Amino acid sequence: MNRIVSAIKAKAKNYKVRLGGVVANRSKDTDQIDKFNERTGLKTMAHFKDVDAIRRSRLKKCTIFEMEPTEDVIEVQNEYLSLAKNMLENVEPLEGNPLKDREIFDLLGFD
After folding, report:
1. Alpha-carbon distance 59 to 54, whole Å?
2. At what angle do helices 101-108 and 31-40 cross, to 10 degrees?
3. What is the pTM of this model?
4. Is residue 55 within a helix (H) or strand (E), and if so which, with residue range?
5. Is the pLDDT of residue 111 over 60?
6. Domain of 75?
7. What backbone torsions phi and psi does residue 46 show, to the nearest 5 degrees?
8. % helix, strand, coil for the chain, step of 5
């Protein structure tokens, strides 16, 4: 996530790209993401826990929208559509400030 923040910040000098927020994917909890967001000026826009339909779509090498429309697949599709709508209509660009590697290790408690 930090590398993405750095890359977008660098590209924003010459191109019209901005950060809108973080999508937490395949994570049970967001405590480390929340710490990172607080330090870098970001916010979480969506949290997709460890969703089996997403895992199955990766195994089938297709998008969630190419999957057979079962109840769990439709639920995830609707979450992604809601996220896309929110990104188009309600997102203010954020100024993300990337951290140095040592700062990340200290923040998250790694040696």
Report:
1. 9
2. 140
3. 0.77
4. helix 52-59
5. no
6. 51-92
7. -155, 155
8. 50, 10, 40
Q: What are phi and psi of 47, to 5 degrees?
A: -135, 110
CA 80/CA 86 separation, integer angstroms: 10
Q: Find the length of the chain.
A: 111
* Other CB atoms within 10 A of residue 49 CB: 12
From 85, 86, 23, 31, select the one nearest 51 (Cα to Cα). 23
- Mark whether 35 and 1 lie in a shared domain: yes
Residue 108 lies inside a defined structural domain of this protein? no
Q: Which two tokens stand for residue 101?
A: 């590697």
**Whether the predicted pLDDT of 74 surpasses 90:** yes
For residue range 16-69, list pLDDT tens digits in order. 898 999 999 878 889 999 999 999 999 999 998 888 899 899 999 999 999 999
Cα 14 off chain centre by = 23
